[in-house]
Design goal:
By secondary structure, the protein is mainly beta. About 5% of the residues lie in helices and about 25% in strands. The chain starts with about 40 loop residues before the first strand and ends in a 13-residue tail after the last strand.
Length: about 190
């Protein structure tokens, strides 16, 4: 009989390298065309632990449309100028700023037996120094009752909850910043 030892998983590598071929692709940060009815600008800055902007992060977002419907067909990379795709990818510039053209997400249909979640945008963040991508959410600021009853948000203390709620801009767009660590660190999710 052989003596078996428990093997330890190999640690993750930092994300990347990122190659210029097919990443980014044309209009990758436009979930629908700018200026389309109902379109808004989602923008923000990605900061490191010392509060400095990170110039080489990539964000991916997934979300339902304005009516809460999740896009269920293939072709989310197609940018035809009028179809809402529900998915986008955007690289930050040298200043650490990202921008997407999207819509305010509507509330999705509740899962039977679970409380309804407030409308949100799912986010994945890739950046230097990260061994794995980070997952988080962006919530709309207006519906305070839905925010108070959201299962995830209601499980957080108010200071931590605040890191997931965007600010509404005067032009109707949203601003939401990401802090990878340190003071005001964004809440990140761990999916099992």
């Amino acid at each position: 009989m052989s003596n078996q030892t428990k093997l330890v998983p190999t640690p993750g590598q930092t994300v990347g390298p990122f190659y210029g071929y097919a990443l980014p692709f044309e209009k990758d940060n436009e979930l629908l065309a700018p200026g389309s009815p109902g379109s808004i600008r989602l923008q923000g800055t990605v900061y490191d632990g010392s509060g400095q902007p990170i110039p080489d992060a990539i964000l991916e977002i997934w979300q339902p449309d304005a009516d809460g419907n999740i896009v269920q067909k293939t072709g989310s990379l197609v940018r035809d100028g009028y179809t809402f795709t529900g998915w986008g990818r955007g690289a930050v510039g040298n200043s650490g700023v990202f921008t997407f053209t999207t819509v305010n997400p509507g509330p999705t249909k509740p899962v039977p037996g679970k409380p309804a979640a407030a409308p949100f945008i799912s986010v994945a963040i890739f950046a230097r120094g990260l061994t794995n991508r980070l997952f988080t959410r962006i919530y709309l600021p207006e519906d305070t009752e839905a925010l108070a009853n959201d299962p995830l948000l209601s499980s957080l203390d108010p200071e931590r909850r605040r890191t997931l709620i965007a600010r509404r801009d005067a032009d109707g767009g949203l601003t939401w910043d990401v802090r990878l660590q340190g003071e005001g660190e964004t809440v990140f999710l761990d999916f099992q």
